[in-house]
Amino acid sequence: xxxxxxxxxxxxxxxxxxxxxxxxxxxxxxxxxxxPKSPHYCQVIHRLPMPNLxxxxxxxxxxxxxxxxxDATKKRNRLILPSFISSRIYVVDVGTDLRAPRLFKVxxxxxxxxxCNLGYPHTSHCxxxxxxxxxxxGDPAGSGKGGFILLDGETFEIKGNWEKGDKIxxxxxxxxxxxxxxxxxxxxxxxxxxxxYGFDPNDLKKGRYGRRINVWDWTTHTYVQxxxxxxxxxxxxxxxxxxxxxxxxxVGCTISSAIHRFYKxxxxxxxxxxxxxxxxxxxxxxxxxxxPGFITDILISLDDRFxxxxxxxxxxxxxxDISDTREPKLVGQxxxxxxxxxxxxxxxxxxxxxxxxxxxxxxxxxKVPGGPQMIxxxxxxxxxxxxxxxxxxxxxxxxxxxxxxxxxxxxxxxxTEQGGLTVNESFLVDFGKEPDGPCLAHEIRYPGGDCTxxxxx
Length: 457
Known about the structure:
This protein has helices spanning 109-116, 192-195, 392-398, 400-405, and strands spanning 11-17, 28-33, 43-49, 61-62, 78-82, 89-93, 102-107, 119-126, 132-138, 148-151, 158-161, 175-178, 183-186, 212-217, 222-228, 235-240, 248-253, 258-264, 270-277, 281-284, 290-291, 295-300, 306-311, 316-321, 329-335, 347-350, 362-363, 366-367, 375-377, 383-387, 408-414, 421-423, 429-430, 440-441. It is mainly beta. The longest helix is centred in the first third of the chain and has 8 residues, at 109-116. Strands 29, 30, 31, 32 and 33 form a 5-stranded antiparallel sheet that branches. A 4-stranded antiparallel sheet has the order 3-2-1-34, with no helix packed on it.
């Protein structure tokens, strides 16, 4: 994989959110300097504010990626920023000046509503055709609906829905596709109008959180199979192995805190098996008597050797060797915050994994609020970047200090030989020090593409 030998990342793009913080400021796209040789190392060097308040920027994707490989007319020069709550879609020009992105186009929410009958856009992937596809969680009224918006790759106008036929999953979230296996698989978080204001335990066991991964025929755009991963599992991030010949991958289930391996069967349909279970902890002083790990983000290294994920509530980031994809082996783990640290409001009464509660996490004298959430790996696999915000309404509920102090970006050093994770103590991007006040930093993107944006076909 020649991309493993690609240049070291020097800047990253990070959406930063002010919604639900009490600060009447628009969300913005931060450009962060991550080059240790730079005088601006660990600093936000540019901010592109959005023209509206309350968007809730969330994930981002490219106008072109490895799926367009070989087409010299395609350039990775536009970053697509769907707004999770307002349903606007921003197109940002990063080609003119890599270090100072500028707004290129705004797709208004009424276009999303009226042309697609969809809302709450989430994941954006470019297609080999040059089009851009964005998954959604619901319809314009906030009921669940797992459809897809299709954008023209040149004009960024909405072309309509990707999906065809009458059958549509009741919920949506993330997706990955692999044309070699004629498949797209999507996931389900929950019903937007239920989860939008926060996490209510009364919504459990009522069909309001996702339980399926949904299989689509890539050629016909039709929904062909649902795979059940458990009631209220909330399967979020899904990743195929990067090798395009591989007909398997992993999905992280958040509320059930399990990793399922999905794979193509000999019969040609798809199946899933649980390969990792993070045990809940018996606790006092928390919302529920059992605290799940809350697996919120997962990724696979570009060489398909390691799987990484974050437990947003327990506070640890984990590294598994997946040389045998059916038997992942835990080889690295580090705690960088979370809800069970010593001296906090939560007492752990029973723990199947730890002898004692972890110490609060400090770096450069700052006590880090929140827990590890979005992760991004360097192309060579040696540096794992971590941010701490999940979604503003849930941040406010589970980690009020995150709203007050702002989130952070951390960097973990990875042992790519034996496995192992250690915190880089000299790296901290503190979004609590932003000029407009503390904000919530979310997904991390490299200008040249990365483990979670690029699909090889």
